[in-house]
Specification:
The chain is elongated. Strand 12 and strand 13 form a beta hairpin. It is built from 13 helices and 19 strands. With about 375 residues, it is α/β, with parallel strands linked by helices. The strands form 4 sheets. Strands 1, 11, 14, 15, 16, 17, 18 and 19 form an 8-stranded mixed sheet that branches. A 7-stranded parallel sheet has the order 3-4-5-6-7-8-9. A two-stranded parallel ribbon has the order 2-10. It binds pyridoxal-5'-phosphate. Pyridoxal-5'-phosphate (PLP) binds near residues 54, 56, 213, 229 and 232. Pyridoxal-5'-phosphate (PLP) binds near residues 229 and 232.
């Protein structure tokens, strides 16, 4: 199985040094040095004074503990998560970082935020009313046109007249979120930025935070004083129609379980949707929709195996997919070899596009059986 070894070695090489021997069927290899370089790039391009990192949803599926520890080591002292639970977990490995929680205290339950020293993002006048008495730092989210989270113009007006609240509120950051930052020319960006300036002028002065990954890379008003990148740190292209400015961080490798040479005309997989001729070779790979592979990629997706792109044939099963590897030399791929499902040879964005989704969803849907392996030259 010389060919199989070559494939594995290449996969590890592309991922970096220090990977232990493979023993699981699916591995998400996370290059922490690339993460660090992306953090430095986004930070320098933004011109922002502070660079926070968004590590919600288990750091976009890459594993919040190793990701945030490494970002901390790179000087990151501000983190954003979506939920209180995520904030409490993150507190366990970043004892003195500022942890902002997008949802803020729900039902007026401020105690867990106070106890863990979390900074809530307040999204409504009601949340401001419940938080102000704590006299602890908070961020305020202004909804400037996304209609998702944040205070409306009317609420900002109401708050601006509430001296009782403003006296006690320790306003650390005023933030907003752009709906179309991934399309820099979209007119909604300018409209939202103008509304943001108008609204925040009615409130006490505070640090601003605007840019997600795309906004951060655009810089200036799109970034604000503190940026909040997520996807770009993890190697995902934050733009809809521009080249990817960051480098690959995550590579998804899955193991071949069996290779069959078809003896007669027959079909592959459930529903008999793909017919093959005698002489075709089908590699069955241990990765299915239970692991986060979109079922719609049956007869549509690709893998990178033994230096070539090979098609997914037949329907995606829960635990398995089929690849037509007839184009590869017969000894190039055997049981135990790894194929790449996205990574340096097969961009995440391309796989996502074929599946009718986006890089974010591909990453966060990876399942429980996918082992996260971390590589880093420095050992951090
Ligand atoms: C998820 C999120 C971000 C990060 O966005 P990316 O596009 O991943 O950089 C920033 N701000 C808010 C409010 C978010 O919900």
């Amino acid at each position: 199985m010389a060919g199989a070894e070559t494939i594995s070695a290449n996969a590890f090489e592309s991922a970096g040094a220090g990977v232990s021997a493979p023993e699981v069927n699916v591995r998400l290899v996370v290059n922490l040095d690339a993460l660090a370089r992306n953090f430095a790039l986004v930070r320098s391009r933004s011109g922002a004074a502070d660079c926070a990192a968004v590590v919600k949803a288990n750091a976009y599926g890459l594993g919040v503990e190793r990701v945030s520890r490494r970002l901390y080591a790179e000087g990151c002292r501000h983190f954003f998560v979506a939920t209180l639970e995520e904030g409490l977990e993150l507190r366990g490995f970043t004892p003195d970082a500022a942890i902002h929680v997008f949802e803020g205290p729900l039902s007026g339950d401020t105690a867990p935020f106070v106890e863990a020293g979390l900074v809530p993002v307040l999204n409504s006048l009601e949340q401001v009313e419940s938080w102000a008495p704590t006299e602890r730092p908070a961020a305020l989210h202004l909804d400037t046109g996304m209609t998702r989270l944040g205070m409306s113009e009317a609420e900002v007006d109401a708050l601006s007249r509430r001296r009782d609240l403003l006296e006690r509120l320790d306003l650390d950051t005023v933030m907003t979120h752009l709906a179309c930052a991934d399309e820099p020319e979209h007119p909604a960006n300018r409209e939202q930025l103008e509304r943001f300036e108008r609204l925040r002028a009615r409130l006490p002065a505070a640090r601003t935070s605007v840019g997600n990954s795309a906004g951060a890379l655009l810089g200036g008003a799109h970034a604000g004083d503190m940026i909040r990148p997520g996807i770009a740190l993890y190697g995902g292209n934050p733009f809809a129609a521009r080249p990817n400015p960051v480098e690959t961080v995550a590579s998804l490798l899955a193991r071949v379980v069996q290779v069959q040479r078809v003896e007669r005309g027959q079909t592959v997989g459930y529903g008999a949707t793909h017919r093959v001729e005698p002489g075709t070779r089908i590699a069955t790979v241990a990765f299915g929709y239970a692991d986060g592979y979109p079922r719609c990629l049956g007869n549509r997706g690709f893998a990178h195996a033994a230096g070539r792109r090979v098609p997914v044939v037949g329907r995606v099963s829960m635990d398995l997919i089929g690849l037509d590897v007839t184009a590869l030399p017969a000894d190039a791929l055997g049981p135990g070899a790894y194929v790449e499902l996205f990574g340096p040879n097969l961009p995440l964005e391309e796989v996502a596009r074929l599946a009718g989704t986006i890089n974010y969803e591909m990453l966060v849907r990876l399942g429980q059986r996918v082992r996260r392996d971390y590589v880093s030259a420095s050992g951090r």
